Amino acid sequence: MQSIGRLLAEGETRLIVAVETGRIPLNVALEIAEVDLDGAQEALAKAYVSGALRGKKLLAAKRIVEQRQRRGKSQRMNRARERGKRLSSDALVRAYNQEADRQRLLIKRAEIAQNRLLFIVTAMRSLLADAHFATLLRAEKLETLPRPLADLITAGDT
Fold first, then answer.
1. What is the pLDDT of residue 31?
2. Are 53 and 12 found together in one domain?
């Protein structure tokens, strides 16, 4: 918890999110946070050689370092540090809860989109099964569908 607090105090929200989601280990995030932008690549190489980062985790850490170079540690946190405010444990909990709420909302939106797609696919299957509707589509030269939608519709027929 103290390590996460140090990352938060330094404005390293990108690294905190990566650690919380399991994309990179905490010790690697701490090493990246301690070095300047040029030294971050060296820290990644050291983590790879030591075996702390492999495969997808290495790629995720590399992406985080690149984002850090382009956009900074975190725009919101840098503004708070410029005003001279110290981050408290309440701020840490608040930031964590905000991120958790954001992820819950993202999951809810994905479920809604999936349900809507299922409704559309089911409706299109029943409409295309109707011979009169298929004839109408051909008469209006609308008999083709986008490939991903057509694949979903025909997948249920087999």
1. 72
2. yes
Q: How many domains does the chain have?
A: 2
Neighbour tally for 152: CB within 10 Å: 18
Q: Tell me, yes or no, whether 71 and 139 share the same domain.
A: no
DSSP for residue 144: -
Using the predicted structure, report yes or no on whether residue 136 has a pLDDT greater than 90: yes
Amino acid at 82: E
**Residue 65's domain spans which residues?**
2-87
Question: Domain for residue 71, yes or no?
Answer: yes
State how far the Cα of 54 lies from the Cα of 3, in Å rounded to an integer: 22
Q: Of 87, 120, 141, which residue sits at a domain end?
A: 87
Residue range 6-40, pLDDT digits in tens: 777 777 777 777 777 777 777 777 777 766 665 66
- Is the separation of the CB atoms in 74 and 12 below 8 Å? yes
User: In this structure, what token pair is assigned to residue 92?
Assistant: 């840490």
